[in-house]
Amino acid sequence: MNTDQFRQFGKAAVDYIADYFDSIKNRPVFHSVHPGYLQELIPAEPPRRGDLWKDVLQDVDRVIMPGITHWHSPNFHAYFSAANSFPAIVGEMMGAGFTSIGINWMASPAYTELEVAMMNWLGKLLHLPEHFLNCSDGPGGGVIQAYKTYFQGSASETTLLCLLAAKEKKVRDLKALNPDLNDTEIKTKLVAYSSDQSNSSVERAGLLGSVPMRLIPADEDGKFPANKLLEAMRKDRAQGLIPCYVVACLGTTPTCAFDDLTELGPICNQENVWLHVDAAYAGAAFSCPEYRYLMEGVEYADSFNFSPHKWMLVNFDCSAMWVRNARFLTDAFQVDRIYLKSKQLTSIPEYRHWRIPLGGKFRALKLWFVLRIYGVEGIQNYIRHQVALAKYFEQLVVDDSRFELCCSNMGLVCFQLRGDNELTEILFEKIIENRNIFVLSGYFNGKYVIRFSICSQLTERCDIDNAWQEIVSQAKFVLRHHGGLR
Ligand SMILES: *Cc1c(COP(=O)(O)O)cnc(C)c1O
């Protein structure tokens, strides 16, 4: 394909995406396909002679669209929001256009330099403590992680990476005190802790990193109870085990609860245990001063992570991580080869020592586009608008005596039909069967709840009204036919 054809193909593709967004509201939020559907639509072999781009683009409608779940539909209220915006799409496209591989500074200086600058911008946007920033005097700094690039499912590269760094740090610390100890002996005794409300990727990090992850039952507000953490650590120490890593969460996946860092932090610091803070979704809200009290105590953390690809308009994947002391990453993971040597850098990090993959994508570019084109105020307005929509939905629940509000935080509202759990289970199934809106269910303090999340940036009050109407009309049916359960 030559550049003239690329111009046509590329412009047609941009038009396609723009048309997609213009029509997304009218598309059913759910796909309507069966497993294996696509195998029937395309040949079993690749074409012998190349196809025309126009034919290929047409097949996107026929083959791909039926199997897309429309995450950016205003009727999508499942999981958490998956960020997307036009500046980010263009940034992603241009990054693909340049495709250099950021294996070190020299391999494309702009990759590393823009990432350093963007991590400073982001850190300042969230008002993270100075010691986390690349621009501070100390050994702290930030890096963009890929999350999921290398691990399927909901694993998080950051949680795993910090666990591995914490492990190495603990081995070094203990050997400094007692040089006779050997690595294997120490490593088999290490333990990590989180709450049972933490993301599945936290438990998975324990499995991947071969450190038992104790999932401490959360309190009735869904928070990690500090006294239970201390108790568990003492119990483990009494058995000769060695606490080494704690994951606290700001904005848990089930209910968006916020762990109290002012309680957990001092315990971790006293016990010399690495504290990682997972704020994957809710971290974006710290761009607004009114939510920053929720990260009070973050100065105790050894590492902090949030994902602009969730709630900050940068499309997948782009996850930001800061560490108090980058030496703990670079000491743990540094491997060099002659072909990787680059000029001795002073103020600029070699990010390949900070992450698992050697090469890095130009993720900073889309971040730069988003931060420049929205600006701090644009991001703040976006977050506030989404929270206001959740509050509006919350009020609809509260005002209807058939329903009970179970919890509401940021863009997430959990509620149930009053009465037996089974009523809400049937309601949930009816809603999903009917396919007009997409929600999830879960448990909160033993109650079966419907989990309603504000996801799409296209969602407006009228969409919330429609969603509520759908829920109420299904609820009426459920109460009429199953009300005896009450
Ligand atoms: C979504 C989420 C994750 C996983 O993030 P991905 O970016 O999807 O890998 C981890 N922790 C929390 C609290 C989350 O909400």
Can you put this structure into words, describing what you see?
There is one protein chain. This protein is of the alpha/beta class and 486 residues long. It has a domain at 100-361: Type I PLP-dependent aspartate aminotransferase-like (Major domain) (Aspartate Aminotransferase, domain 2), CATH 3.40.640. The protein contains 14 helices and eleven strands. It has helices at 3-23, 53-64, 86-98, 109-125, 157-177, 183-187, 200-208, 226-238, 261-270, 308-311, 327-333, 363-398, 421-434, 461-482, and strands spanning 141-145, 190-195, 213-216, 242-249, 274-278, 303-306, 319-323, 403-409, 412-417, 440-444, 447-453. It has a seven-stranded mixed β-sheet with strand order 1-7-6-5-4-2-3, sandwiched between helices. A four-stranded antiparallel β-sheet has the order 8-9-11-10. A hairpin with a 2-residue loop joins β8 (403-409) and β9. α4 (109-125) packs parallel to α12 and α5 packs across α7. The longest helix is centred in the last third of the chain and has 36 residues, at 363-398. It is globular. Residues 146-155 have low confidence and may be disordered. The structure holds pyridoxal-5'-phosphate. Pyridoxal-5'-phosphate (PLP) binds next to loops.
